[in-house]
Design brief:
Layout: E1 5-7, E2 10-12, E3 20-28, E4 32-41, E5 49-63, E6 66-83, E7 86-103, E8 106-109, E9 113-124, E10 130-139, E11 144-154, E12 164-173, E13 179-192, E14 195-206, E15 209-222
Antiparallel strand pairs: 1-2, 3-4, 3-15, 4-5, 5-6, 6-7, 7-8, 7-9, 9-10, 10-11, 11-12, 12-13, 13-14, 14-15
Length: 223
């Protein structure tokens, strides 16, 4: 695989010698979250070894009759293991967050929180034409958990693109009692110039309202 295969915790490229990877993502729907960050390897991002991730993000969502805004920052270190079938990565570190709740025209800023963050990721190729990804993130600063599972088949009929296309499922929950579930279709590992992308769309379900459409996009590039 000549192009970069990337999970936020793992990356593989047969002919890439970069030690730094920049990435950004956006999910837009009933709740919206945008993030950006960098991954740094001691040697190269396409080799087994120690790696570090730093990221910042911000989001907004409905909460009762108001809205909750969140800003987060995290720094983690870990290790990535390469196998013939794919990559496993595990990280640990710190995460800080600040939240504000707006209701009835009044905004209340909640105290800043600092906690631990655990991040695990698997990108596996059960066969040359299939891709399985699994990601789990735990954050004690907001007592939050996020996970995503996806499966894809390589679309050889798309000359020059050849993404993996298939279903995805994601779940998020935190200390406020908020929950959301995403069910959608993703296209993973296609490129535009030097940038690699993952795009998905589907339905987002929240206890506060009916199921609504969502779209998400992740972009990454070696530097």
């Amino acid at each position: 695989m000549a192009r970069l295969l990337f999970g936020l915790g793992a990356a593989q490229a047969q002919d890439n010698s970069a030690s730094l990877l920049l990435f950004g993502s956006l999910e837009a729907g009933p709740s919206t979250f945008v993030s950006a960050g960098a991954k740094l390897a001691l040697d190269r991002i396409d080799r087994e070894g120690f790696v570090a991730l730093a990221s910042f993000g911000a989001g907004t969502r409905r909460e009762g009759a108001g809205r909750r805004e969140t800003a987060t920052g995290a720094a983690v270190v870990g290790y990535q293991w390469f196998h013939d079938w794919g990559v496993i990565a595990a990280y640990g570190g710190i995460e800080g967050s600040v939240e504000a709740l707006t209701a009835g025209g009044v905004t209340r800023l909640e105290p800043a929180r600092l906690g631990a963050r655990l991040h695990g990721e698997v990108w596996a190729r059960p066969s040359e034409a299939t891709l399985l990804t699994a990601t789990a993130i735990l954050d004690s600063s907001r007592t939050a958990a996020w996970g995503r599972l996806s499966w894809g088949w390589r679309m050889e009929s798309w000359p020059g693109w050849n993404p993996y296309l298939g279903p995805e499922f994601a779940l998020y929950a935190d200390h406020t009692g908020y929950r959301k579930w995403n069910f959608g279709i993703h296209a993973t590992d296609f490129a535009i110039g030097r940038f690699s992308l993952r795009a998905s769309a589907g339905l987002q379900c929240e206890p506060q309202g009916p199921a609504s459409p969502y779209v998400s996009l992740t972009v990454w590039t070696p530097w």
